[in-house]
Specification:
Length: 450
């Protein structure tokens, strides 16, 4: 019986993920290792796991803190300009990406200056918040263009099989680096804040800025993508969307609306549960570690499996995760544990869903038109998420004095939207032709490298 069972198992199943990681760890991918490390540092130390506690500590109201999260989302519209810019620059994807990276990935240096200025009294809290909002908006636009262009860059220079190997593992490694940094940084900031006050936030921001410069340098050393030009027909509205694409965009927009409505856990932990900024950052660290697990699983699955099915499952995980804070009642001993559980499950759902959504898009759309369609995808989800963020900020502004009820309402609606997305993403509607795994048309166009 045991022998029969073994014969039924797919050969090499346990070894395949390990073999994929060994292949990714090989010297030919060394530049991608450096890119993942730099991205992980910037993503965490100049991300909202640090920025939101900084904003709250300088007196930002919880409702405004929720609206801060809407600012980088508006950057999704910036990607719509990229096809036109590529046409104007003779397909110079490399130059546009490096410019965007230089503007967005070095934002930690500006955050560092703001932290030092408000810490020593050169700027008031109100002025600091205004400047912080401006930097978040501009850096969010540049960061969105950088991320989207790098996906197109990877698709241009890597064969399809290599792209499926490299891109998910890039995210997994960057998340792992970020998680390893965030835990010690949380305890360090809690310990130093008593002696140095707000200025202590300059430490993570400065480290992020340095690694942002390193990231720009590494991007410049990636294999040249050549001339990448979106066909004129794809620049307009003439290209019809398939039923699979429309369904994908609908469920992605529903999920994005739920993401926008979800209050930041760091805001809930500090403003309602009365926990420290250090605890809020450990929430982020737990989230990052869990993202590593989700990204590693997603990368192993998507090398050979269905992105549609993985995306659908991620909605169910997120629905459960976002419902848990409702049970985290203020003053209870289990509240911190429930917050950790929510952060863990939410991160697994987010990372696996993010990788699955990107992979789904690349499997549905062939050739250079993917740049234009990616811009449309980002724009639609940005609209949905921005509407959710504005609604969330409005609820917290009106119901903020109520505390827990306002947050519980938002968490409940957000969880319900993920259930709707899960039910709408029926596998038989989504799988379609992607199971054939046809190689896409290369993004490279004939011509000399810029």
């Amino acid at each position: 019986m045991l022998a029969t069972f073994r014969r039924r198992l797919p050969s090499g199943l346990p070894a395949a993920p390990l073999a994929d990681w060994r292949q990714f760890a090989a010297p030919p991918h060394r530049r991608y290792h450096l890119l993942a490390m730099a991205q992980g540092v910037v993503m965490v130390l100049a991300g909202f796991d640090v920025v939101i506690p900084f904003a709250l500590d300088i007196g930002c109201p919880p409702a405004l803190a929720a609206l801060l999260g809407a600012l980088p989302i508006l950057g999704g519209f910036a990607q719509l300009l990229v096809p036109g810019l590529l046409a104007r620059t003779d397909g110079n994807l490399r130059g546009l990406t490096m410019l965007a990276a230089a503007l967005g990935e070095t934002r930690g240096l500006l955050y560092c200056l703001l932290a030092l200025a408000v810490g020593v009294g050169l700027l008031s809290s109100a002025v600091t918040l205004l400047l912080l909002s401006l930097v978040i908006l501009l850096a969010g636009m540049a960061g969105t263009v950088t991320s989207a262009n790098l996906l197109a860059w990877h698709s241009a220079v890597l064969p399809e099989e290599q792209r499926r190997l490299v891109v998910p593992r890039l995210m997994a490694v960057s998340l792992a680096v970020g998680a390893l940094l965030l835990f010690p940084m949380a305890f360090l900031l809690d310990g130093l804040a008593e002696h140095f006050g707000i200025a202590v936030y300059a430490v993570p921001f400065a480290i992020s800025g340095v690694f942002g410069l390193i990231e720009v340098a590494v991007v410049g050393r990636l294999p040249h993508p050549g001339r990448v030009i979106v066909p004129p027909r794809a620049l307009g509205q003439q290209v019809p969307e398939s039923a699979d694409e429309r369904q994908f965009l609908r469920i992605s927009s529903i999920n994005a609306l739920g993401m926008g409505l979800t209050p930041y856990m760091s805001v809930y932990a500090m403003a309602v549960l009365g926990l420290s900024a250090g605890f809020a950052m450990t929430l982020g660290a737990v989230s990052m570690l869990s993202m590593v697990v989700g990204a590693a699983f997603a990368g192993a699955h998507l090398r050979r499996g269905s992105s549609a099915r993985l995306l659908r499952n991620s909605f169910a995980i997120r629905a459960l995760a976002i419902a848990l804070p409702i049970a985290a009642l203020p003053g209870t001993l289990v509240a911190p544990l429930l917050m950790y559980a929510s952060a863990c499950l939410g991160a697994i759902g987010f990372s696996s869903g993010q990788i699955a959504a990107n992979e789904r898009l690349f499997r549905l759309i062939r050739g250079p038109a993917v740049i234009r369609q990616h811009g449309r995808f980002l724009a639609r989800t940005s609209v949905a998420m921005t509407c959710g963020q504005l609604a969330s900020g409005g609820v917290l502004a009106v119901g903020g004095p109520l505390g827990y009820p306002a947050f519980a309402l938002l968490y409940g609606i957000s969880s319900g939207l993920r259930v709707v997305a899960h039910r709408a993403a029926a596998p038989e509607r989504l799988v379609g032709r992607e199971q054939r795994f046809e190689p896409p048309v290369p993004l490279l166009q004939p011509g000399r490298p810029n």
